Amino acid sequence: MHAAVVLAHPRADSYAHALAQRAVDGLQAAGHRVDVIDLYADGFRAAMSEAEREAYHGDQPILDPLVQTSADLVRIVDALIFIYPTWWSGLPAILKGWMERVMVPGVGFTFEERTGKVRPGLTNVRHLIGISTYGSPKSIVRVVNDNGRRTIMRALRLSCGFGVRTRWHGLYAIDTSTVGQRAEFAAHIERSMTDLR
To answer: Can you count the helices (H) and strands (E) in the chain?
Structure first.
């Protein structure tokens, strides 16, 4: 299996980076090929440019080589794994921008020629996984709708087709969690990736 890990955190010493490493370790231990897209380290630009918006419905909607690299990868992987902190009850801006700029027509979805209906573009993806940390407890996260999770598990899921399997891993109330709780969650992530088939 080939997996892409999409990581969105600006600090290399962050817990999100530690979780990404544990996920990669688990995937590799299971014999899977892994590519990591570290959005901040790569210098990914979140904002869609005017030229990109103009090109969006054209024959070549991707103008940036860095965006093209991500698009080429998501078209061939079996698993997409997102690791990020939940900020303001949603995705970090850089990850939302990655989705807007990468999941363009011809990548995230296609249009049926005869009817114009939207069809999934990532039917190669068999596993869609989200891993996030939250400052708030789970009860509060539910009240504010957990928008990042909804974007990945609902909107992006539609781009993968009905056969995709989903998993969500959340560490809630990280601000008041103990070292032991964070260590156990990280170990859980590695085990979960090792079990991925």
So the answer is: 9, 7
In the chain, the number of structural domains is: 1
Distance from C-alpha of 99 to C-alpha of 95, rounded to nearest angstrom: 6
pLDDT band at 13 (very low <50, low <70, confident <90, very high): very high
What residue has token string 């794994």?
81
Domain range holding 93? 2-194
For the record, the structure tokens of 131 come out as 């891993």
**Rg over CA atoms, the chain:** 17
CATH of the domain at 26: 3.40.50.360
Distances (CA, A) of 126 to 11, 31, 48, 138, 196: 30, 17, 28, 27, 11
The pLDDT value recorded for residue 162 is 86
Q: Beta strands of 71-153 (E only): which ranges? A: 79-85, 109-111, 118-120, 127-133
pTM for the complete prediction? 0.96
Q: What is the pLDDT of residue 189?
A: 98
